[in-house]
Amino acid sequence: MTLRGVARTRWYYPPYEFECSETPRLHARLATTLSVIVAWNFDEIAPEVLLEELHTACELTLEELVNKRSKRLSFAELTATAHDAGLFDYHRVFEERNPAEVLTELKDLRKNVRHRAAEGADEWLKLNWENIAILLERLVEILNRTAS
User: Fold this and answer.
1) Which residues make Cβ contacts (< 8 Å) with residue 57, sequence separation at least 6?
2) Rounded distance, CA 137 to CA 30, Å?
3) What pTM was estimated for this model as a whole?
4) Residues 144, 69 contacting (CB under 8 angstroms)
5) I want to staple 147 with a disulfide (CB 3.0 to 4.6 A). Which of 8, 18, 22, 53 is the partner?
6) Which residues have C-beta within 8 Å of that of residue 136, sequence separation ≥ 6?
7) What is the secondary structure of 29-67 as a DSSP string?
């Protein structure tokens, strides 16, 4: 077997704990989210892809936490419901900004990038991607506590 050196590898330890095996659909989706986060950090994908993925991961996680009804809620309604339920109270990673506000920025930027080819995804992600990932991790932690 011929071996060769590589500068980058696909093998990594997950930087965030997104395990939620009691919710298989979300568990599988968050595994994809983790891969997309890592790929973006290695410049393997465009920032618009990560923006879309973070929005989807947040939406599905919030849906699982605050909307057990059959009526579909908008992302803004999910965020407001989670805020009203106190799910963001403990989370101050956002430099004193309300996580609901940052999630609203994510939603608005994603909409503008996706539908209007707006710029700004890379700049916004550089400032906010890790806070969103940590928020997701904490929301999954809450979900796991309520599922057991």
Assistant:
1) 29, 30, 33, 136
2) 10
3) 0.84
4) no
5) 22
6) 16, 18, 30, 33, 54, 57, 58, 61
7) HHHHHHHHHHHHHTT-S-HHHHHHHHHHHHHHHHHHHH-
Cα separation, 134 vs 102, whole angstroms: 13
pLDDT tens digits for range 83-135: 999 998 765 555 667 888 999 999 999 999 888 888 889 999 999 998 899 89
CA–CA gap between residue 144 and residue 61 (Å, rounded): 11
> Got the DSSP string for 74-122?
PHHHHHHHHHHTTTTTT--TTTT--HHHHHHHHHHHHHHHHHH--S-HH
Alpha-carbon distances, residue 63 vs 37, 72, 107, 135 (angstroms):
21, 9, 15, 15
121-148: per-residue pLDDT in tens? 999 999 999 889 989 999 999 999 987 7
Do 29 and 60 meet the contact criterion of CB atoms below 8 Å apart?
yes
| C-beta neighbour count of 66 within 10 angstroms | 20
